[in-house]
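hi support,

uploading two proteins for the ticket. first:
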Amino acid sequence: MGCDKRQRRAASGGLIPAMTLEIAHYLDDPEDVVRFLRALPSHVRGEELSALFELLVRGDHHSALWPVLHLDDLDGVCMATLTRALPAFHTIYLFEGAKWALCRNTMLPPTTHVYAWLDDAYRVSDNVCNWARNVVALSIETPEFLKDPTLLGRALSACTNLRALTLQWQNVDQMLLDQTLAVVVSTRPELASLHLKAENTPLLEDATSLVRWLRLPNATTFKLTRLDLVGPAAATLATALLASPTLTKIKLEHAPCLARLLLDPALPPLPRQLHKLTLRYRGLSASVPAIAAKVASSRLTNLALSAFVPCNFMVIVAALPHVHAMAKVKLTGADLVAFPILPQLRRLALHKCVLSKAAVIDLATLLTSSTRLEALDLSESLLPDAHARHLLLAVPRWCSQRGPFRLLRLCHTALSDESAAVLAIALATARNTSAVWIDVSGNVLSAASCRGLLTALSATTQMTLMLYNAGPSIEDLVTHAQTHGVGSVRALTFTSPPPEANPWTTLNL
């Protein structure tokens, strides 16, 4: 008995049991974490996980607490309990306006990762001093701060584990950029990700400082937003990007000169280790054939292309089956008359696209045939009733496929009440084996259609339905949901009844 008491005291004091904490970090759903922690004896949970349990069991701040702690969205949370629970969090988002006393008065274990978005010159080196070693990603947007490379160097020196840096200027010129990058290279040569943003869209004429950073051994991610180069400088940087042996991600937004040179057929193909490519700029339609050629010979896993006006992307889409590792595709402003079956695809987003009936039928076929597709997002792509019907009738079979989750986003697609009725049937007949999220926000639906969707949701399990800006009042829908045992997590987000409360559903084994 005495030995047992000593073991309990040893377990409850000191560090959190490593295995218990690791299991909790594998659970993304706060309710799953609550169930897991409730099943553990208090002496196994320890002080930190007991405090986490106390926070989560209240249920009013789930989205701000787990799996990522958002320190700017915790009004009403007991700060003493939160302080005790801090070591239990794997990831913390720290925004301007957060509770700085936590940063100044507490220490975090080395396993906690902090992502910080700051717009005050002294936050990093002063207010975040105790958490500086935990900062793995830092975004700084203060113009005054970025005009003082010495102060920037002080902040970067404090963040000894920094791996990703975002710098944003309102106005930047060649001299300021070169001075800033010199500080970055000298203080954090191990940096893996660099994102440079400007609001004044400068045209730079010297790429030397950018190329110097690209040649660092750990440089894997390079992003430019509203920073472009002209003449020989653009050619120099494009060549350096294509020659890099370490880059795995390139993102160019509003940098048309550099993007066009990156796609130049006279330059080498995309690096073999490059997995993610994002291009967004006016005039992208003129680069479609060049993009298709580069993509077809690549080993990309993620591709995101955004045109500002609808243009024909079919030559790019036709190249996708040749890229066997392609798992995520996002096209914005595409005019599509067909879409290939991509068995390896995990996520597909077609935003503001013009979809023919044949293309929608292809997407429905993809839903019913794919065992890997987790998410389909057609936000702002109009779906007439005939198109929507083909797609929605494929939803039950898609949801029945085994996988981690399913997400269908049909926001602002002009879904009609007739299409909502088809969706209600799809919900009621789906027999999903994992969590399903369906978002139809932004479609003007009648109160009767919304009530029909909620009634159908009452016959489901593990489903979440989002109806933001759908038309009817929140109070009416919440009342109808409660009548049918449907949960309301927050405004106009509804969930299936608990399995034990729903006699119409059974567990699919």
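and the second one:
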Amino acid sequence: MDRFVRYAVLIGYPQLAHSLGLDPERLLAAEGLDAAELIHQDRWTPAPPVARLLERSAAESGQEDFAVRLAAMRRFSALGPLSVVLREEPDLRSALELLIRYQHAYSGILDMRLIEADGLATVQAWLEFGEPVPIRQAVDHTMTALLLIIRTLVRADWEPLAVYFSHPAPADLTVFHQVFGTALRFDHEFTGVSFPARDLDTPTVTADPALRTYTRQLLQSLPAPRVATTADEVATLVEFLLPLGRCSMPHVSRDLGVQPRTLHRRLAAEGQTFSGIVQSTRARLAPRHLADARLTLTQISCLLGFATPSAFSTWFRQSFGTSASDWRARTCTGPAAQEQQGVEVGQGG
């Protein structure tokens, strides 16, 4: 599946590249990107070349924080029309829920979720490119943009309790500390930001109640979010149950409070099957896990509910047309990625 992002993600790229001694036109052209298109912020372009551009720029400049620097140059308006609506939301909770509900309006690769538990609020972010590409710089860009959005909405000195990155720490943390603060956690199981749940009720400093009627009208002009379906509910439960080894129609039916035959009928009415949802959920989660160099392929096969690593390897090759080890090698760029090529890959991948 093709995944797209708006050219707005590259706002400031030529200036930053030049300042670091790079040739932005050459680097853009090498990835099939047209420098002349950068002025059209709302135009969409395939996401993988953008991810590769950020990685190459970081490597050639010797700046592991390249994407953090780039995202820090963005303005709130880079979100496009949604930024006008977002700034008029009454509090942080409303703004984040809107940002998540309409993420398809500004990104074709972002899967963001807001989780509340035990007095803690966590925004988790995942990037899905649809093909194996190195994602470290894209992840850093996303987290920088998210933090700056929150600070614009509530206050410039807002600090989270922790900022999490699934990749290892860079050698030089100076810029990361300047942007994110010191509560950084690397090699984490997910990428995201956590803060006290009470912060969700913080009023936005940008809101003008008198304008809310007009921004609601503007919101109606944006592509509407997809209405949640039974298949979506099932997919959510499948994602939770796969690592537990309890991902079956009876288990999911019980959790939804319906009989298996009722669930089967509802899914059929949506043109879906339970087994199809299991496979599509695995296909969505597998690249995420492979991008985490801490996980062996044996661990990933368990997380996806496979009985054996060889079963996972066979399924992955059939689903993606390549081995899991090859996908990982093309996604992870650090030395840890090369060390984590599990033995089972060579045997069954």
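thanks. also noticed: Residues 136-153 form the longest helix (18 residues).
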